[in-house]
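Example (one chain per record):
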Amino acid sequence: MPEAIVTANAVSATEGPLGHEVSLNPAVVPVICAALLYAVSWIMGGCSHPSSPLQPAGGKKFSASREIRLDPEDVDDKLVPAVSGRKLTMEKMAQRAATSLQFSNEEYGIAFDAPKGYLLKEGDLPQMDRGLGYLGPIPMHFAESGGVRLATVEPPQGLHLGTNFVNEFFTVSAHYGVAPDSCAALDIAPESRGPAVTRTVDSILFHGFAEHSFASLHQYSGIYLHGYANETCYEIGYGVATVGSADGAQAGPSGSAGSLKRIDPEKLMPKLEKILDSVRIAPPNFELFTSAN
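Predicted structure:
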């Protein structure tokens, strides 16, 4: 009996389904197995292949990343991502805010930017303001009373220390309800009035005069302009006050400017002109409300 069982098992291992003998070449078996494994992995989409670069085990998809290699000569270069227009605008506004003082008055619809570090004084100036030194406070030159000072920019204390510098200023005022003819007139004394000056400020034409004065070893030179818009007369004035004689010579031993370095006011005016270039004028709030209704 044991011999019969062994013989039957040997026959079944070498016969096919119908009892025919099937012989396989041992060298072909690995090739067939590899082909079957490849077919199964292709059908399953690589799910069972742990080293698939596009889909890891567990079926979760992820995007393939590719390392970008720079040429040796471009090693120091940086890859700069694209920046949207809105982000650029916000960055420019942030940069402007970081480098300037911003004034805006919605009641009269006027705004401007002043240098960072300067003093921005809104409304009327205090009595202790440096003004023009011995020449008096910073003026307004409306021909009719009722003008309102909106803001004044002045440098911090200690600027130009050791020189004959007294003060520089940029001031903005407004007079609502005056006629255009009254706005065209500036209350500047004839002896202090210099050449006529014209400027275009935010598409509005401004007319005015250069002015100068000298007294008590103090001298002042500046420019005052008037422009009419939104039924309002806008006044812009800026200038520089120094210690010294009218011809620029230093005071003697009894004067306060005898040993001080001389500052040329004309070299300070361009900074004030930059503030003028930043002025923006728009319809005031009450006009916007009226037109909307």
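Caption: The longest helix spans residues 29-43.
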